[in-house]
């Protein structure tokens, strides 16, 4: 067998960087509904402001149950920012579900991450995607 190869120009895939630059890129979710702030490398995270009325938690500091779920209990006037390097893989309002620790999270906001962790909370939380998080 020879090492002869036939080359064909197949153009750019719809999801390639070159195609995105030519045709624009469409995000599969509504951008205004995504609870996400992306921090540039080296920039301070929004939750770093000591005068802020929000609580800053790091995703890696949360201790999930045996199913990889965490439920945040907080007052109505408390704003939570969740700092992570992980990508959000899903978010929305939870269907009927009870966690491994027995908490009914039906109707709560949920945020799922690429590492398998799912966070539930009664109110929205802001996800701060920061590449500088250790």
Query: Which spans of ≥5 residues are poorly predicted at pLDDT below 50?
Result: 3-32
How much helical structure, as a percent, in the residues? under 10%
Major β-sheet strand ordering = 1-8-4-2
pLDDT averaged over residues: 74
N/C terminus separation: 51 Å
**Residues in β-strands, percent:** 25-35%
Structural class: mainly beta
SS element count, helices:
1
Order of helices and strands: HEEEEEEEE
In this structure, how is the largest beta sheet organized?
A: 4 strands, parallel
Tally of domains: 1
Instruction: Tell me the number of strands.
Output: 8
Instruction: Specify Rg, calculated over alpha carbons.
Output: 20 Å
The geometry reads as globular
Structural features, described:
The chain has one helix and eight strands. With 134 residues, the protein is mostly beta strands. The chain has one domain. A four-stranded parallel β-sheet has the order 1-8-4-2, with no helix packed on it. Strands 3-7-6-5 form a four-stranded mixed β-sheet, with no helix packed on it. The chain starts with 16 loop residues before the first helix and ends in a 5-residue tail after the last strand. Residues 3-32 have low confidence and may be disordered.
């Amino acid at each position: 067998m020879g090492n002869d190869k036939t080359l064909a120009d197949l153009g750019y895939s719809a999801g390639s960087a070159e195609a995105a630059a030519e045709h624009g890129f469409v995000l599969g979710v509504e951008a205004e509904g995504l609870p996400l702030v992306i921090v540039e490398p080296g920039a301070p995270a929004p939750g770093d402001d000591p005068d802020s009325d929000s609580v800053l938690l790091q995703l890696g500091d949360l201790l999930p149950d045996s199913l990889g779920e965490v439920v945040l209990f907080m007052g109505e006037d408390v704003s939570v920012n969740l700092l992570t390097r992980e990508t959000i893989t899903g978010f929305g309002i939870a269907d009927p579900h009870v966690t491994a620790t027995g908490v009914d999270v039906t109707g709560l906001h949920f945020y799922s991450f690429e590492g398998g962790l799912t966070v539930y909370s009664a109110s929205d939380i802001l996800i701060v995607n920061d590449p500088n998080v250790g």
